[in-house]
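[Meeting: bench + compute handoff]

Bench side (C.D.) handed over the final construct sequence. Compute side (W.E.) agreed to return the predicted structure before the next meeting so the bench team could plan truncations. Sequence as handed over:
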Amino acid sequence: MPRLARAEPRLSPGWNSLTLRILSALVLAPIAIAAAWFGWPFLPILTGVAGAVMAWEWARLCSGGAVGQCGQTVIGFVLSAVIVAAFFSVPVGIALIAIGAAVIWAVGRSGTEAQLVHEPGWLAAGVWWIGLPCVLLLWLARPEESGRATLLWMFAVVWATDIGAYAIGRWIGGPRLAPRWSPGKTWAGLIGGAGCAALVGWGTARLLGASSVLPLVLLSAALAIVGQFGDLAESVAKRRFGVKDSSGLIPGHGGLLDRLDGLLAVIPTVALLSLICGSVLTWR
């Protein structure tokens, strides 16, 4: 199977991965925070752009670097689902994702396009993996559900997890978390990421004036573990297709999908909990 070509950033002496990660975060984080803070129409626009870029990366990953008609269809369905969810109905947007995944799977297994789609099942799964969190993000952003605070809290939890896992994992080292799928991740990094996320939960609870901080602390730590397994899920896909990064768009991070893989797992989890128990920021 052909390997996916990616652009390797040229690093000047003294520049390392951590430096690039920090600089990339300083550029990307304010954009996400501003979109969450100001809401409509900035959040739907940013979500649509991010979804389309991640769908493009996923299509390239599954098709050896080529984005054929099936890959273009993946992008189209993800973007259409975000637009429908933003302007009309979230349930209809989710239904569109289900239809898109079925269409991609069916078309990818037939015709000349099958020559480019080595794994139509993986390509179809990407419609769910990318499209569903994008649609649910817009649902969580609803004003009546404390949307702005929920989004900012989720972002902070994921970012704290990434920073804590990377820094503590490199500092302590130790046993690998899943050496077969992601040799760089350690149990120390997982624990460190969960600890940093718990601190975010504590700070959020104090800022919101919650009578009890423990529920949000525990939930934040649990979401850190969910995010880490979301990261591992993408690592499994990249190993399956023999690539290191989904693309070379973000220096120090690879592609946008590499940067947001943890968030893609956290969003549906928070949405499910909110659907069952109400806004998680109001738990006591």
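W.E. noted at the follow-up: The chain is about 70% helix and 5% strand. C.D. will use this when planning the next construct.
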